[in-house]
Amino acid sequence: MGCVIAGGGPAGATLALILARAGVEVTLLDKHGDFLRDFRGDTIHPSTLQVLDELGLAGSS
C-alpha cells in the first residue's frame, strides 16, 4: 500500500519519513522545485530539536 502526501513542509516531510520507515511507499509532492525558501527561518527552537532527536535526525556530528 502507498500514499501521496501533498506539501513538503515540516509536517509533510515528517509524515513522509515516519510512513517510509514503517514500510509504506510514499510519494511526496510539493509546488516548489527546491528547498530555497525565504520563510524557512534562521533558528531552530528547542521543541524542534526534541522532535528531530525523537526521529533520530539530531545526532551529533
Quick take:
The protein has two helices and two strands, in the order βαβα. The protein has helices at about 10-20, 45-55; strands spanning about 1-5, 25-30. It has a two-stranded parallel ribbon.
Q: What does the average pLDDT come to?
A: 84
Count of beta strands:
2
- Name the structural class: alpha+beta
Count of helical stretches: 2
Summarize the biggest pleated sheet.
Answer: 2 strands, parallel
Poorly predicted runs: none
What is the end-to-end distance? 35 Å
Order the strands across the largest sheet as they lie in space: 1-2
Q: Helicity range of the residues?
A: 25-40%
In N-to-C order, the SSE pattern is EHEH
Query: Which word captures the global form?
Result: flat
What is Rg?
A: 13 Å
Content of β-strand? 15-25%
